[in-house]
Amino acid sequence: MAMVMRSSDVSRKLALAGARRLFSTRAVANETVVAGVTKALSSTGTVPEWTKTTTVYWGQSGYGLRSRSTLALGEKDGDEQKKQTKNGAVSDGGHSNKDEKGIVSYWGVPPSRITKEDGTDWKWSCFRPWETYKSDISIDLKKHHAPTTFMDKLAYWTVKSMRWPTDLFFQRRYGCRAMMLETVAAVPGMVGGALLHCKSLRRFEHSGGWIKTLLEEAENERMHLMTFMEVAKPKWYERALVFTVQGVFFNAYFLGYVISPKFAHRMVGYLEEEAIHSYTEFLKELDKGNIDNVPAPAIAIDYWQLPADATLRDVVLVVRADEAHHRDVNHFASDIHYQGRELKEAPAPVGYH
């Protein structure tokens, strides 16, 4: 009975010693916590050896006391952690910021240091040097799939009906128009990729590379948005509009893809054709001088491997070429379904830029 009572007292005192740090997300110094735990245990006459050598980390809020999760850090690991903190870590803004303190993690995942070909630090965390490319701007921009079947016509006129309120709202503010367009254009690839991913898991089969292709499309469209955010700052009501449009479009496209993938891909093909038209009009306004041809954002120069003196016009050219490639991929995917085949039966155009 005495042994049971002593064990219960030890557990209670240990919990009380750590209760003050229950909701802390910081790494706690060895001397502070261990001293408290040692004091709580010393009254029982037993002081374990681990209290003299181990740094204890308490869990984050919502996970309770991490009384059984400890990490022994030697002097070498401690020095390495301090060095990472001194050198800085990747910030939330997408690039490294040496003025900020490094993130101290219980799991000890070190930040990767990547350099450009010239040896300078790579400052973007949202994409890596091996994901950059030179866009093929020589692609045929006038290709068009003439709608013949009922599904094609439904997809075509669905996209056309979406263009009218867009023209009314943005009129000739093509910078804001491009930014808002990309918040929608980045949805289909993610939805299609996720559904194909789940299908691949259910059927225990390969996807033919189409999961990667569609997710690449979604990421590429998102990079368009990250670029145009540097050019046109969204107003509060435009941000509110994104919530509404994205919520409606995501669920509608998800349902459409589940019912008929050939309709969904055809609609995206027509949506990309409209994007090509919008960016062509954007270029016309730039050439007329109605829109300032400002220097290209740094993120665009690195992502599309543009020259250092690139301008907004150069950015619009490569973005328009991207949309043309997405047009081809989605019309191709729809054609595969129209022939009664599955996407996995045709090699996916991975890396088609």
Can you offer a commentary on this structure?
The longest helix has 28 residues, at 261-288. This protein has helices spanning 2-19, 30-42, 75-87, 150-170, 174-185, 187-203, 210-228, 236-259, 261-288, 298-303, 312-338, and strands at residues 55-56, 70-71, 89-90, 96-97. Strands 1-2 form a two-stranded antiparallel ribbon. Strands 3-4 form a two-stranded antiparallel sheet. The model is unreliable at 1-7, 17-35, 47-78 and 80-93 (pLDDT under 50). The protein is an all-alpha fold and 353 residues long. The chain contains 11 helices and 4 strands. Strand 3 (89-90) and strand 4 (96-97) form a beta hairpin.
Annotate the secondary structure layout.
Blueprint lengths: L1 H18 L10 H13 L12 E2 L13 E2 L3 H13 L1 E2 L5 E2 L52 H21 L3 H12 L1 H17 L6 H19 L7 H24 L1 H28 L9 H6 L8 H27 L15
Antiparallel strand pairs: 1-2, 3-4
Helix pairs in contact: 1-2, 4-9, 5-7, 5-9, 6-7, 6-8, 8-9, 9-11
Q: Any idea what the shape is?
A: globular
**Low-confidence stretches at least 5 residues in length (pLDDT < 50)?**
1-7, 17-35, 47-78, 80-93
Percent of residues in β-strands: under 5%
Biggest sheet architecture: 2 strands, antiparallel
Indicate the radius of gyration in whole angstroms: 28 Å
Kindly, what is the distance between the CA atoms of the first and last residues, rounded to a whole number of angstroms? 75 Å
Secondary-structure-derived class: mainly alpha
What's the mean pLDDT score? 78
How many strand elements? 4
SSE pattern, N- to C-terminal: HHEEHEEHHHHHHHH
Number of helices: 11
Strand order of the largest sheet: 1-2
Query: Into which percent range does the helicity of residues fall?
Result: 55-70%
